[in-house]
Every structure is written in C-alpha cells, then in structure tokens.
Amino acid sequence: MVSVAARDQPLPILLICKYLLSLVLGLGLLLTLVQSEFELQACLRALRIYSLAVVGVQVALQRVVPEASALHQGGGSGEGYGSAGFGKGKARNKAGKLVDFFLVVILSIFSVCLTHVVTVLYGAYLIENIEETFTFSILVASLAFVRPLVTLGPGALGVIIERASFEEEPELQCLSALVGAWFGALPIPLDWDTPWQVWPLTCCIGAVIGEVGASAYLLSKLYKVVDLKKNNVSKDCQELKSLYDNCFNQWYSEKFLRGVLDDSTCEPVFKQYQSCVQEALKKLKIEIPKIEEIPSEEKPKE
Burial, 53: exposed, middle or buried (Cβ in 10 Å; 0-12, 13-18, 19+)? Predict the structure, then answer.
C-alpha cells in the first residue's frame, strides 16, 4: 500500500521548479551571449552573474527545504550545511551549522582557485587574459564544485566517492559541466575566425550546455518518478476503495437483510477492520461513508 505524507508533497515540486529555473537561466545566458554578438566584456559580465545566480538558487533551496538534498533520484544521504550540526543540543547544533557554513565558504573559494590553477596548467596564460581565465574558473567551480558543497556539506567529496553514482544530481551536474567545458575547448584552435572562438567563450558555452542538458535529464527523470508515483497511488486508492465498498455492502446486507450474523460478533470485527481502512484512506485523502451516518432502517436497493 502506498501512503503519501502531506509534508513530502511540496519537495518534488520545488525540485521541478529548481530544474526549470536552471534551464531558463542556462538558455537565457546563451541567448544573452548571442544577442551581445559575443562581445568579450559583455559575455564575461553575463557569465559571472550566471555563476552567482546558479549558486544562489542552490543556497535558497537548501535554506528553504534542507531535506531536498535527500530527494535526488536514487536516494542521496548527504546533508547540506543548512541541516548540518555537531553534537546535541540547540546551542551546539547552531555552532555546528555555523562551522559548516564557514567550511563551505572556504572550500568554495579554494575550489575556484584550484580550478584556476588547473586551467593554467592545461595551457591558459598565467598573467595575460587573467580576467577571462578567472571568470571561467568561477563558472566551472560554481557548476561543478560549489553546488555539491552547498548540497552535501563540507564532506561532499567523501559522500560522492562513497556513492560512486552519476545518477545523483550533484555528481551528474558536476560531470556534465566538466565534460562540456572540456569539449568546448575543441573549436578554439580551428581557423574559423569567429568571435565566439575567443578564450574562454567556447569552454564556458560548453559548460553551460552541459548544465542545461543535465537539468533537462533530471527534470524528465523526476517527472517520470512523480507520474509513476501518482499512478501507483491512484491504483491503490481504487483497489482499497473497492475493497471497502464490497466489505461494507456485504456486512450491511448480512446484518439488515439476512439477519444470519450475530451483531455481538459481527460488529466488533468489522468496526476494527473499518477503522484500519478509514485510517489508510484518510492518509490517501479519500472520503468514505461511516456506518453511523447510515440509518438502521435504510435498506440497500435490490
């Protein structure tokens, strides 16, 4: 039997809104780059704003619904800094959250610096084009590293290694952004002489396309799960309602028409069964008639 708790219903809706917002932000950024005719400074400014917006959406979701970190399809057992805490007691829990918050901030800054260093090691200029390289580092770190830290907390790396599943949201988004940025570097050496081939636009566009693809995949996957859950609940509701109706009609006809069953034995047993069924139907939000609401002189139609 499938039971649906009322407090769990808004969570998939929030995740759907989050993935839709990620799609809108990504597609909006790509459209902005095209409309600016890939003017470098305008593109860099748009990329930095997009990076902050992506992290801001994740932080807002984590603050509003800390349980959302456990809703990624396939499970997910990590906790974000919004729900973390050390020890017991309110004071220690607040202190633990504060420590986790600062750890997440420090690790996020470190991830940006590390991405910048790795990018330089892979061929970017150390001094020349430093603004372009740093903007690329902010974008990749925001998409691939900062969001898992916000979602899973300071121990995000350990959780990801332990799970080793790219079906989870943090791992999938991280991988798609990195792979997209990697493939985005392929057009740079080509002699097409187009404005979007300027460093780091192709890599940034590739990372954003990877993010959009991951969001679309997660959205479709979540929609399938929610739709399947609704179908299962609807099927269980119909079966349970039919079972209750059959049992009620049989008991009613036995008691009021045939009179072959002793009320002293029939009624307590059925009332106990009815109580269990009513409780289950109440969880599924189905209204059912009560025995007390049916007058004793009323007879079912033949």
Answer: middle
Whether 19 contacts 212, CB under 8 Å: no
Full-model pTM: 0.66
Place of tokens 């109440």: 282
Rounded CA-CA distance 262/252 in Å is: 13
Residue found under tokens 């305008």: 42
- Mean pLDDT value of segment 162-173: 78
Alpha carbon distance 22, 212 (integer Å): 7
Highest mean pLDDT among 37-41, 253-257, 262-266: 37-41
Residues 160-195 as b/e (b if ≥16 CB within 10 A, e otherwise) read: beebeeeebbbbbbbebbbbbbeebeebeeeeeeee
Q: With 70 as the cut, is the pLDDT of residue 62 above it?
A: yes
Asked if residues 177 and 210 have their Cβ atoms less than 8 Å apart, the reply is yes
Whether the pLDDT of residue 217 is over 60: the answer is yes
Distance CA 94, CA 98 (A): 6
Secondary structure (3-state) at 68: helix
Distance CA 175, CA 181 (A): 10
Position 152 scores a pLDDT of: 84
Question: 62, 68 in Cβ contact below 8 A?
Answer: yes
Instruction: Kindly state the helix (H) or strand (E) to which residue 247 belongs, with its residue range.
Output: helix 201-253
Q: First-to-last CA distance in the chain?
A: 33
